[in-house]
Amino acid sequence: MKIIVDGFGGDNAPLAVLQGCELAVKEYGVEIVVTGDQETLKKTAQENGISLEHISFHHAPSVITMEDEPTSILKEKADCSMAAAFQLVKDGKGDAFVSAGNTGAILVGATFLLKRIKGVKRAALASVIPTATGCYLLMDCGANVECRPEILTQFGVMGSLYMKKVMKTANPKVGLINIGSEETKGGELQIAALAQMKEAPINFTGNVEARELPKGAVDVAVADGFTGNIVLKLTEGMGSLMSTKLKELFGGAVGKLAGALVLSKIKALKKSMDYTEYGGAPLLGIAQPVIKAHGSSNPKAFKNAIRQARDFAQSGMIEELGNTVSSMKKPENGN
Amino acid sequence: MKIIVDGFGGDNAPLAVLQGCELAVKEYGVEIVVTGDQETLKKTAQENGISLEHISFHHAPSVITMEDEPTSILKEKADCSMAAAFQLVKDGKGDAFVSAGNTGAILVGATFLLKRIKGVKRAALASVIPTATGCYLLMDCGANVECRPEILTQFGVMGSLYMKKVMKTANPKVGLINIGSEETKGGELQIAALAQMKEAPINFTGNVEARELPKGAVDVAVADGFTGNIVLKLTEGMGSLMSTKLKELFGGAVGKLAGALVLSKIKALKKSMDYTEYGGAPLLGIAQPVIKAHGSSNPKAFKNAIRQARDFAQSGMIEELGNTVSSMKKPENGN
After folding, report:
1. B324 CA: distance to closest CA in chain A (Å)
2. Which residues have a Cβ under 8 Å from the Cβ of B60 and sit 6 or more positions away?
3. Residues in chain A within 8 Å Cβ distance of B226
4. Which CA distances in Å does B6 have to B88, B92, B94, B124, B303?
5. Which of A57, A326, B240, B304 is the most buried (most CB within 10 A)?
6. Pairing of strands A135-139, A290-292
């Protein structure tokens, strides 16, 4: 198993990337190719005592930044570390792609260099979100702001397969994010999507209200990219508020004493709400495994993103998704 | 100041309603008329030792339930406690309306019995949401699933006036809920609304990401009713997850000891996140003050909803909103 990692993606690159690769090699026994400016990578590894066992470099002279136009990955930044990583996966020199870089550029690069699976209308960015009881897959998280009903249905199929094959969830429950549980709720998009999703080859449990998501009511929550992005970011924002409030609670001398008494529980709570435990966001619908790590990923987050890329590549999900999509009846208004 | 309260709205009616009214009379010195079946109201007050000083009853024989069609308030349930409350306010027998009943019926009753302010295109349900630093007004919370840009602009104007006149926030910051801060972010609705809101007579601070809402980034957050409802319910769901996690943290013998050490802080935290502290959801754009209390309101929540109704009625906001709306330039594609 060989994972291709963009060495210059994310706020903490290339140091956190290399540290994450080192951890992943040790823990998962994978081979890794890191793309980017070879001299800088070598120097960073050397200066920080990072072992390069099972890690090799592939030179790419430039970097695509958060300010660059996503499409520049195909043009003036075609020699960047992210483009090089896509090219290696495309050429069969690696089994999966990982980057914490510009999300738009990852979408463009994946769609134009690796291509979508035949029959998939749109690739979707999926995030694994912690809940009270485990986690759920939220999609789309922002790749497709406006969607048609048949696209939401495909998201449900892709998310269900991902949870089953990669996350090993038996018979994943798929819900459509909506503003009520009744069939008449929502806008035209939700009403039409609900009818289609009932016919899809998934364990569809109907509309799910946003209030139920943190409880773990579903394993896959489907929405257009606008709604999904709101859910993702509000979940992050509320999580961060929760951390702040906990810090306040256990501040001061007495607070610290109280905190010491329940330290193991606080640690368990933090771990259960920690997005970095789940790795990154898989881009589903692309012909090869693509993982978008969080922009602010630390070494542990990179390590987990590499594990997720390995699991994705090993799962056989992409082949099964291709078969499922091609066997599905086309909706009458589809294209 | 006379507040008209629907005696049979909400899960805990009529007992919690009457207890809330008793508290409100004591604390705020208001006069209250409670609508509903007079015998049941009298009996409930008597059996529970509720003082009826400054509280009178107005008989209405039927009740509109959560299962009833909202429009039934105009037809077969025209004799319900909620309809009677609207009629009293309409006839000038009271200054404001409070109910914890069927939200759809409140929208229908308010729009058809009390009417919208001249020039207001749609009434919006607004919720006061606690944040790290105080609270913000979220609107629309679900009354208008699909909106046009000029409707969002009016929501911004209404919300801004409410925060200024009723909540006494100086120069309230108004943001448009969107999936990024840049002007090109979002769907057609958000892009067009952003341009219009810049020209509106409000302190408009541009797009606001959902991640920033719990931090208190804005005083008024504007969205279509679908998006607003998702934000409202996810905030509730995450708040409830937070409560569950806190209970786990302070469970068991050692946990209880830790909890005792920081008890005052836990109480303050709970209070700061408690929606009942802020009363109910004002329905903005209606020609008279309407407050929708939460369906599960307890006596304290009813008391605070009555305070909010009083503040709303005293604020002069409705007159000012009428003047502001009529002075605003009509957008070219408006109607």
Report:
1. 30
2. B35, B36, B37, B79, B80, B81, B83, B84, B85
3. 179, 186-187, 227
4. 11, 16, 12, 20, 13
5. B304
6. unpaired
- Sign, CA torsion A6/A12/A15/A19: negative
**Terminal C-alpha separation, chain A:** 37
Q: Which of the 8 DSSP states describes residue B116?
A: B
Distance CA A134, CA B4 (A): 46
Residues 164-203 of B with CB under 8 A from A: 177, 179, 186-188
Chain A touched by B210 (CB under 8 Å): yes
Count CB pairs under 8 A between chains A and B.
145
A contact residues 280-299, partner B, Cβ 8 Å cutoff: none
Q: Do B236 and A211 touch (CB under 8 A)?
A: yes
Two structure tokens written together for B298: 């307890």
Q: What is the largest CA-CA distance in chain B?
A: 66
Site from B69, B144, B147, B234 to mutate, A interface, most A CB atoms within 10 angstroms: B234
d(CA A82, CA A100): 9
Beta bridge partners of A279: none
CB atoms within 10 A of CB A61: 11
The secondary element (H helix, E strand) that includes residue A221 is strand A220-222
CA distances from A58 to A82, A99, A225, B185, B221 (A): 11, 14, 34, 35, 47
Q: How far apart are CA B79 and CA B67, in angstroms?
A: 17
- Nearest CA to B109 out of B69, B52, B57 is that of B69
CA gap B90, B71 in Å, rounded: 18
Residues in a beta bridge with A34: A5, A57
Strand, helix or coil for residue A42: helix
Confidence at B335, pLDDT banded by 50, 70, 90 = very low
Average pLDDT value for residue range B93-119: 96
Contact list, B186 vs chain A (CB under 8 Å)? 145, 226
pLDDT at B331: 57
Q: State how far the alpha carbon of B198 is from the alpha carbons of A226, A292, B139, B193, in Å.
A: 22, 35, 18, 9
pLDDT score at B133? 87
Cross-chain residue pair B261–A257, CB shorter than 8 Å: yes
Residue listed under structure tokens 């005696």: B7
pLDDT digits (tens, 9 = 90+) for B3-19: 999 999 999 999 999 99
Residue with tokens 């069939």: A183
Calpha distance B327→B119 (Å, rounded): 10
Do B36 and B81 touch, CB atoms closer than 8 A? yes
Q: Is B248 on the interface with A (CB under 8 A)?
A: yes
Q: Do B255 and A233 touch (CB under 8 A)?
A: no
Q: What is the pLDDT of residue B330?
A: 66
- pLDDT tens series, chain A, 335 aa: 999 999 999 999 999 999 999 999 999 999 999 999 999 999 999 999 999 999 999 999 999 998 999 999 999 999 999 999 999 999 999 999 999 999 999 999 999 999 999 999 999 999 999 998 899 999 999 999 999 999 999 999 999 999 999 999 999 999 999 999 889 899 999 999 999 999 999 999 999 999 999 999 999 999 999 999 999 999 999 998 988 888 888 888 888 988 888 888 888 888 877 777 777 899 999 999 999 999 989 999 999 999 999 999 999 999 999 999 999 866 555 44
CB-CB neighbors (< 8 A) of B134 in chain A: none
Note whether A19 and A47 are within 8 A (CB). Answer: no
Are the beta carbons of A226 and B142 separated by less than 8 Å? no
